[in-house]
Amino acid sequence: MIPAQETPNDLLQSGPYVIKLCGPNAQYVKQDLDQLYQILQSVIADAHYGTASPAYGTFFKSSIYDIFVSEILTNITTGAAIAKLKTSRVPVPASPVLTCITGPNQVIDNVTGDTSNPLDLWDGCAGGKGWAFYLSGTNSIFLCPRFFTVFQDSPTLPGMGPEILCPTVSGGQFEGFGGFLAETQVYIVLHELLHFYLGNSPPPATNSYTEVNEINAAFNLSAVEAISNAQSYVFYAASECEREGSFLSRLSLLRRC
Question: CB–CB of 181/167 below 8 Å?
Fold first, then answer.
């Protein structure tokens, strides 16, 4: 990534990405983007192996889509500018902008075109309970206050290495929801960037199914559903990052429904 450049009006440039209205937290968002860039290098290389990769095979099922998966992740590392679905709102290709939102009435959006009924984007933070969200049809990703309360780096706690925090496998399924594997600032950013790039990608990606975020639900998706499911990429990237532990060896114990 290009080194951060300070610009007026509380903007920080990190390569092609703009970090907006984050104040002192902007440096952490930039660190997240830089770390994500590093993580995805090995993941992109791994995707070319298709189902010969245990992690890829677990979450994407078919080598038919390895190029698609690789291209989506490559777009994230380069911050590729893509024309939006609602081109009247963002008329030219643009890279994602990450904006911090801290309370009501900070960012108002006329999402429906009805000026009498504007949307307060603080609602997307679920009253402070949400981490982040992508505003569909735009290039805007919003980071909520809670985002800055979760782990910034890889999921480790004092005395608890990745081996403890990785999901275990029992009875042919993952145990738990996979939260510790993916719920860090880096992977939350990845999840929202995936919504941006998947939402504006050509077939075979589709948005005609219900998004799933729990690890076993992601594991049981069909191949075409998985390549359209943001959290499937997150679990894949996170499991690749844990390749030095025993997580990948556990994947052979899984049983597909």
Answer: yes
Write the CB contacts of 188 (distance below 8 Å, at least 6 apart in sequence): 131, 132, 147, 150
> Hunting for tokens 């959290």 — which residue is that?
231
Tell me how far apart the alpha carbons of residues 231 and 192 are, in angstroms, rounded to a whole number: 9
Say if residues 182 and 162 touch (Cβ distance below 8 Å).
Answer: no
pLDDT average per 10 residues of sequence, the chain (257 residues): 46 89 93 91 93 90 94 95 63 86 80 64 82 88 90 47 53 62 83 90 64 88 93 86 48 45
Rounded-to-integer distance, Cα 84 and Cα 90, Å: 6
- Say how far residue 197 (Cα) sits from the centre of its chain: 10
Of 27, 142, 32, nearest in space to 96 by CA: 142
**Cβ neighbours of residue 225 under 8 Å, at least 6 residues apart?**
206, 209
- Mapped onto helix, strand or coil, the DSSP state of residue 66 is helix
**pTM of the prediction?**
0.83
Of 230, 227, 174, 231, nearest in space to 66 by CA: 227
Long-range pairs of 68-72 with CB within 8 A, sequence gap ≥ 24? 68/201, 68/204, 68/205, 68/227, 69/227, 69/233, 69/236, 70/44, 72/194, 72/197, 72/198, 72/201, 72/227, 72/233
Q: 154: which 2 tokens?
A: 């890889």
